[in-house]
Amino acid sequence: MEERLQKFLAEAGVASRRKAEELIAAGRVKVNGVVIREQGVKIDPKKDKVEFDGKALSQKAEKKVYLMLHKPEGYVTTSKEQFGRPAVLDLIHGVPERIFPVGRLDYDTSGLLLLTNDGDLTYRLTHPKHDVDKTYIAKLFGVPDDGELQKFRRGVTIDGRKTSPAKIQIISREKDLRFCTVEIQIHEGRNRQVRKMCEAIRHPVAQLKRTATGELKLGDLPKGKYRFLTEQEIKYLKSL
User: Fold this and answer.
1) Range of 142's domain?
2) Given 44, 53, 90, 106, which residue is catalytic?
3) Which residue range or ranges hold the RNA-binding S4 domain (predicted)?
């Protein structure tokens, strides 16, 4: 039975479907010895030989693993990066499976980051049509007034497109009002979205941390450390 090449790559634990499309476009995938760059190519896993970076792949994926990492600032979520900055995978030791991040956290943002080799789950959690709430704690410059908070909640225009409605509430204010701490909840995953939304209401982010994905909470996991998800947590993610 034929299936799309990017789906095969995801099931083989190479990358998420979306990332697999980038790998195909970059010419890193061969089918029967031929480099494939176009999207939507279908293969027969039982007959066709698929290679990634010269290594033959099997349809049978490695054991599925699911991790939660407390990402520190100063790490990128890509596996390879042109400036040579440290990557989140550098923090993972003793996990033989080829895992990849679920979505991204900015270089200068800390907090909850999921990693797995389950391409289908990654696709569902990162696809725009699936509304998975992400919760952040942000330290902002200044203190937004009621009008600015309402503007944020209704959605603001960033990169020429309005964001979906979001949640924001002030948790604390510094005495001199130079900074405040807020809790923010969004369900989109646009590039640097929280930072850009805060800039749009004229209160830029000084510090940002993701504390939850849906009902999955970071808790007291130390920065730079990771743990395996429980069976209950995995079941919850698959139910989203």
Assistant:
1) 134-213
2) 106
3) 3-62
Alpha carbons 136 and 213: distance in angstroms, whole number: 9
User: Are residue 118 and residue 149 in the same domain, yes or no?
Assistant: no
Per residue in 151-194, pLDDT tens? 999 999 999 999 999 999 999 999 999 999 999 999 888 889 99
Residue labelled with tokens 């993972």: 92
Rg, the chain, Cα only: 20
Query: Looking at the 3D structure of the chain, how many domains does it have?
Result: 3
Please check whether residue 218 lies inside any domain of the structure.
no
Q: How far apart are the first and last CA of the chain?
A: 28
Task: Tell me, yes or no, whether 8 and 115 share the same domain.
Answer: no
106 is catalytic: yes
Residues 88, 108: Cα–Cα separation, whole Å: 12
Q: Taking the complete model, does pTM exceed 0.85, yes or no?
A: no
Alpha carbon distance 206, 220 (integer Å):
22
Domain with residue 145: its CATH number is: 3.30.70.1560
